[in-house]
Write a structure and sequence with these properties.
- By secondary structure, the protein is an alpha/beta fold.
- It has a single domain, classed as Rossmann fold (3-Layer(aba) Sandwich), CATH 3.40.50.
- It has 9 helices and 5 strands; from the N terminus they run αβαβααβααβααβα.
- The protein has a 3-stranded parallel sheet with strand order 3-4-5. A two-stranded parallel ribbon has the order 1-2.
- Strand 1, helix 2 and strand 2 form a beta-alpha-beta unit.
- The longest helix is centred in the N-terminal third of the chain and has 12 residues.
- The protein is globular.
- The C terminus is likely disordered.
Length: 177
């Protein structure tokens, strides 16, 4: 919701990946279970949860985003990632191509935001960073362009969400966004 409001987006597509090439997939719940968990959390008419990567057979974010830009001509797409992903973004397959393909919004999830901002990708793209008070212009910006959004912080990464699901319901803590 923070990104949707601050960026002036019409919709958010929450892409649930079949697996992260940079992480071990052992013990990863089935995709359908993760899609259901994401849908239960999303509960907003303008947030669409999708498993499109499994449907189209892509493994890397760049391939998925390239597919979406080809399939959705005229749609202004923005890639939204958590700040924890920015910290390791330079290890992603074709990360520079992702930055050149479409604008990026980085959402601070809590913790020390200086670490992701000091990461190699953030430093490499520093001159393309928009001021946060200009975040509404990101969707219309020409890539490479990115913004770092501070605001309501949720520590819920996909890993944290899966861990939360494994706890008994009586122990689960409510989440506010």
């Amino acid at each position: 919701m923070l990104a949707m409001k601050r960026l002036g987006l019409d919709f958010v597509w929450w892409l649930v990946t079949p697996g992260n090439p940079l992480k071990a997939t052992a013990g990863l719940p089935p995709l359908e279970a993760r899609l259901a968990a994401a849908r239960a959390l999303a509960r907003h008419p303008r947030i669409k949860v999708s498993g499109i990567e499994a449907e189209i057979g892509t493994r890397y974010t760049f391939d998925t985003l390239a597919y979406l830009t080809r399939r959705c001509p005229g749609v202004r797409l923005v890639w939204i990632m958590g700040a924890d992903n920015l910290a390791g973004f330079h290890r992603w397959q074709h990360w520079r191509d992702i930055a050149d393909l479409l604008p990026i919004a980085v959402v601070d999830r809590g913790g020390a935001h200086w670490r992701p901002l000091a990461a190699p990708a953030a430093r490499a793209l520093a001159r393309n960073r928009l001021a946060e008070d200009n975040a509404h212009a990101l969707a219309g910006a020409t890539a490479p362009a990115w913004v770092f959004l501070h605001g309501l912080k949720s520590p819920l990464s996909s890993t944290a969400l899966r861990q939360r699901q494994r706890r008994p319901a009586t122990l689960a803590q409510p989440t506010t966004y």
